[in-house]
């Protein structure tokens, strides 16, 4: 899961979710997500039947979490 600053496009945090012990590798998906009432935490319902609560890393900077995304424009001709 990645968290981005929507104004600048900077990815300030990347977290790998861990499947519930005993789950299959195919059960590492996110089915739904919503923010709590404060808007500071993300709540996800995952394929392994768990609910996880995520919060942002307050100490993240552009130096500690560099942006690796390089968009490419591809023309598709039909």
TrEMBL record:
Alphabetized InterPro entries for the sequence: Prp46/PLRG1-like, WD40/YVTN_repeat-like_dom_sf, WD40_rpt
Gene Ontology, cellular component aspect: catalytic step 2 spliceosome; precatalytic spliceosome; Prp19 complex
One GO BP: mRNA splicing, via spliceosome
Compartments reported by the entry: Nucleus
Top-rank taxon, per record: Eukaryota
Keywords per UniProt: mRNA processing, mRNA splicing, Nucleus, Repeat, Spliceosome, WD repeat
Predominant cellular place of this UniProt entry's protein: nucleus
Record carries keyword Nucleus: yes
WD repeats: 30-64
Repeat recorded as keyword: yes
Gene3D superfamilies according to UniProt: YVTN repeat-like/Quinoprotein amine dehydrogenase
Task performed by this protein: Involved in pre-mRNA splicing and required for cell cycle progression at G2/M.
Protein family membership: Belongs to the WD repeat PRL1/PRL2 family.
Subunit structure: Associated with the spliceosome.
UniProt protein name: Pre-mRNA-splicing factor PRP46
């Amino acid at each position: 899961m990645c968290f981005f600053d929507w104004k600048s496009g900077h990815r300030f945090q990347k977290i790998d979710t861990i499947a519930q012990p005993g789950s299959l590798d195919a059960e590492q998906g996110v089915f739904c997500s919503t923010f709590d009432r404060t808007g500071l935490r993300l709540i996800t319902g995952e394929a392994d039947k768990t609910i996880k609560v995520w919060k942002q890393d307050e100490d993240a900077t552009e130096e500690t979490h560099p942006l690796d995304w390089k968009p490419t424009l591809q023309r598709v001709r039909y």
